[in-house]
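Entry type: protein chain
Record version: 2
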Amino acid sequence: MGITKKVTVLAVGLGLVTLSACGSSDGDDSSGGGSSKTVTLVSHNSWAVSKDVVAAFEKQSGYQLKVLEDGDAGQAVNKAILTKDNPQGDVFFGVDNTLLSRALDNGLFQPYEAKGSDLILPEYRVDQDKHRVTPVDSGDVCVNYDKAWFSEHGLTPPKSLDDLVEPEYKDLLVTENASTSSPGLGFLLGTAAEYGDEGWQDYWKKLRANGVKVVDGWEQAYNEEFSGSAGGRKAKADRPLVVSYASSPPAEVIYADPKPDTAPTGVAEGTCFRQVEYAGLLDNAKNPEGGKALLDFLISKRFQDDMPLNMFVYPVREAAQVPEEFVKFGPQAKDPQTMDPEKIATNRDQWVKSWASLVLK
């Protein structure tokens, strides 16, 4: 999420201070992997977890948890690849299905089948022959809309990708750069899945002609440009459509004061692309046993139940709890676009290059 969704978390735009897991560490582990008593997680900057959950892991495993947040998902993956011979930590979290092949092809992870993997929902399992990555969460990249804006203007919100190129939605949409942002890339892949290998380019020509605005990342798009978010309202943003996540509306409700009865934003379900995030034991990890214990914990029921309201993503474990607010205000899309990771691997770089020449010129 990263997701996404991901998403720092959606809640950052609402003024929430997230609880990053930074366990205390011994003085000799400053290099990132260090002490055998410390296990280091490298993540994109959307990592968030409750303090009591971190404490439970540390008590159960005997390891202290240290977290290194390393920018957007794409940036974090690229840096992890560049430092794979001397990694910053033991486990990497946050590579999603749009970037998975890049990580696997570059030998970023070593095999490990996490305990409890058999309880992960089948639709999220990948790499079953080698077990180099463990699914942790899922989220849907979708266009969100500002309900108040559309009501005030007497305009029906868009429902599909086709709607976004219609004249009535001109100059209303802001999205993220597909070459620098995980949701931006997810949205591009969603259009490729919908319109095919050739048709997606014609679609983006129409979208560009219809005034789509492109910014570097999710936080700028959602918190500065989107009129429906708490941050956007403060910034007097003027775009009532944004590429974000299906879990964005629940965040707008949960962290509002006072809480509204209904979400101020909605989701155009016909625009969604499903992302799945994975974690893996880094090759050359200094503390592989600690890393294995952490991977086991990431798919434990304790962590999976805690995760949705911290990172605003959905759990992947069977019978994990989904918050009522998610069910009411941000349910998963019923029929999201998806794409085989191998197809993403084959086409991603060329698609992004072509997208940039079409949209950013």
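Comment: The chain is about 35% helix and 20% strand.
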